[in-house]
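Sequence in, structure out. Go.
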Amino acid sequence: MSSILNNTSATNALKTLRSINTQLGKTQEQISTGLKINSAKDGAAFFSIATTMRSDIKSLDTVNSLLGIGAAKVDTAAVGTEDAIDTTQKIKDLLVSAKEGSADKTLIQTQITQLQAQLVTTAKASSYNGVNMLYKGATGAGAGVQNVTASITRDSSNNFGTTSISIDSAQTLLIDGATAANGILSKDRTGANSNNYSIAGGSNNITLTAATTDAQLSDMLEAVDGALKDMTKSSSTLGSVANRIESSGEFAKKLKSNLEAGVSKLVDTDMEEASAKLSALQTQQQLAVQALSIANSNSQNILSLFR
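Output:
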């Protein structure tokens, strides 16, 4: 039955054309944006996961920056410690030379005094962004425990968190102006002959005079050797922390790369598939337009019945 009030064929053809146009518009949007999941309406679950992962990717960028700052702090302390080791070794060499009977101890002390001043300068200068892990003045809190953000975490409930690398400046402090006993160089060390000596920045710094005895020299050498051992240990600690920070940085980069790949798999458009789908939809659109045109012409054919 044909009707001029209701063209069922045209209505069906129009529905088909609208459906095709909707799919075509969505496919074109996916191609132009490169995203198959561009908003929550495209897939709420995937969009939520991708949003969370993007947030973590940005956090990892921040972590990498913080690791860079932490590495700089540790590297600065490590350079200062290495320089202090070299300077202290020179003091040790001078003390050994003072053991020679004809040595001018007063002249040797002149050189030692300069080296002691250099040790203080090195410790004070080993500061990065206001953080000094080698020197503490008579006032002030000092560097204390330095926490370096190492990575991000998510628990089974998807709660966000961070992990840190910690290093206590109490393990690396060379000179403590407030409590000399806390500094590797400023602390008093008691030798086998019961003489107490500090290396630099303390109250009993090594001082040679013409009257300095061999027993005193022996205790001075013992104090210097003890300081060298402690600084070597401190240098190893700083090196271990530096290696861990470097490893954490490499891991953060790999984790970021994996997260970016994961987001891509969730929301990125498969361009080959989208291209093929676009071609198919364009063909379907043309056929649907023709079908609608044919359906619309049916009502005109009814006129021939009344001629």
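Check: The chain has a mean pLDDT of 89. Residues 27 and 138 are 70 Å apart (CA to CA).
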